[in-house]
Amino acid sequence: MPAALPLKQPVKVSQLVRRRLRELKRTPRELAEAVRVSEQYISDLVAGRRRPPAPGRSDLYVPMAKFLRLHRNDLPTCARVERAREVVGRRRPDVRAWKLMLALGEPARQRTLARRVAKPDGGALQSLIVGRLLEVAQGFVRRQLDDEVGLRVAATRDGSSYLDARMRLLEFLDTAADSLTPDDCEEFVLPRIAAWDIELETRAMRIVLRS
Q: With 0-12 CB in 10 A as exposed, 13-18 as middle and 19+ as buried, what is 89?
């Protein structure tokens, strides 16, 4: 079957993937093997139980598009539209995760920030701070994911499989500001970020990495 033409109108990622699997007579397991993720990951994505990965996740969307014979921009475009619709109703970051992040902030500004984010309209500032710190940590994890040999060595050392180790990194890359957990902070953020500060007027942030 030839590759599908570029979509004229974006649809939900789950709908597009489900439709192409049906048209190609392929299974979620086969797609999972092609993308090197767990079958459960694909099953949740197809069923709409999982938020679609960010549009820039070429590590997932490129092999998915190849397997599903889609135009390379179809999945990222659908994900961008779908995720944009979620922003309006997005939750605030987890309180415990926020406290861990705030503790890394400039001590002189922590009290001011705590008061700001406690206001009804403080969620936007809180999400912005957590989101930017998360992006930095995810940058490190992307590089770790690209190092297949290093990841396999680490998995063997930790007594886990390569797929399990890879999935843990992928799960973190799927994390957004409103789904970041304290465990994520402890495992991925705190070991990489030493301190941060923010200029409240311009919202510019200074982030100091651990050496």
A: exposed
pLDDT digits (tens, 9 = 90+) for 51-105: 999 999 999 999 999 999 999 999 999 999 998 887 654 689 999 999 999 999 9
Domain contains 131: yes
* Among candidate residues 56, 87, 118, the one where a domain is terminated: 87
Looking at the fold, whether 17 and 54 belong to one and the same domain comes out as yes
Q: What is the pLDDT of residue 8?
A: 80
Question: What is the phi/psi pair of residue 8, to 5°?
Answer: -85, -35
pLDDT digits (tens, 9 = 90+) for 102-152: 999 999 899 999 999 999 889 999 999 999 999 999 999 999 999 999 999
My answer on whether 200 and 101 are in the same domain is yes
Asked if residue 69 belongs to a domain, the reply is yes
Predicted structure pTM score: 0.86
Instruction: Quote the domain boundaries for residue 43.
Output: 13-87
Q: Which two tokens stand for residue 123?
A: 């969620």
Rounded (5°) CA angle 123-175-6: 105
CATH number, position 33: 1.10.260.40
Picking from 38, 60, 87, the residue at the C-terminal end of a domain is 87
Where is 141: in which H helix or E strand? Answer: helix 123-146
Angle at which helix 58-68 crosses helix 28-35, to 10 degrees, equals 130
CA distance 141 to 134: 10
Question: Cα(first)–Cα(last) distance of the chain, in Å?
Answer: 51
